[in-house]
What does this fold into?
Amino acid sequence: MNVCTCPHVLVTGASSGIGRATALRLAARGHHVYAGIRKPADGTALVQAATGQLTPLLLDVTDAGQITAATQTIAGHTGDAGLAGLVNNAGIGIFGPLELIPIEQFRRQLDVNVTGQLAITQAFLPLLRRSHGRIVMIGSIGNRFTPPFIGPLAASKSTLATLSTALRQELAPFDIRVVLVEPGSIRSEAVGKLDADARQVMSQASPDGRALYNDAFLHLVGFFSALHHKGSPPDEAAKTVERALTTPRPRTCYLAGKNARRMALAAALLPPAAQDALRRRLTHQPARASRVTQTVPEPTAAQ
Ligand SMILES: NC(=O)c1ccc[n+]([C@@H]2O[C@H](COP(=O)([O-])OP(=O)(O)OC[C@H]3O[C@@H](n4cnc5c(N)ncnc54)[C@H](OP(=O)(O)O)[C@@H]3O)[C@@H](O)[C@H]2O)c1
It folds into this structure.
């Protein structure tokens, strides 16, 4: 049963930041938005803020049962019209020295940001196929210009970029476009989560691990937080997502928000050693070999 004739779009991770701004923007511009949230209170707040049609759905991208239920709900409402768009936005950002990051946290990073996106895409492709819908993947410019200690997040986003490239070609025969949006610095709720999470990573490390990385890591976190506090508002990224979803001939990739273009240029133009030096200077990292611990050999009897 199709109860409305406007285009239907699913946005995952719509409780805050870019996902919330995208859901509200698309609803205000005549889409019926299904907004994936994990807490019912976030759904209530979204409905109150929305000026158009917005239906919140419990949708944790790592929960197979919730994915199936959301697919059935949306299929029941959209009927033959299917889905005009899927915005794979949900994500977490785990930072930390790769030597210390608990492996379970690294797995979780990939589970949410990569496997979860594919699970959602697989589940909704039959509905997207009905209306030659579009998929927008939210990547990150950090995938191209990667400072130290954002390894877990950047690894997930470069994998997502690779998935987008493969998917774009696989779905082209069905006229389903796949567009990657790579935000730079966006002032979202993620910044607040970063500070708390970073301190937790360090508090879980052994005293030896902390001694190796604490200062350098906290410098990076401080730099990153300051950059994002001065970043673009989430609606800036939402505008780009809207463009990627609705322009007749979308590009394969769009940059969004402050610093995205600058970082893309640095990644494209500077040789890797110059990029490392630039990132080291910007994030106040110790110089090469400055922290080598000398192992002094024991004097032998002959000496
Ligand atoms: N902010 C930036 O500068 C920036 C830059 C590059 C890329 N990005 C990307 O943009 C996307 C949105 O980030 P944001 O900055 O807007 O951060 P945010 O405000 O923290 O939003 C993240 C969203 O993802 C949801 N989420 C987390 N885990 C989930 C799961 N397992 N299943 C479903 N939803 C889940 C969160 O829901 P809960 O509230 O329930 O946790 C929240 O709605 C992410 O993919 C991020 O990597 C952001």
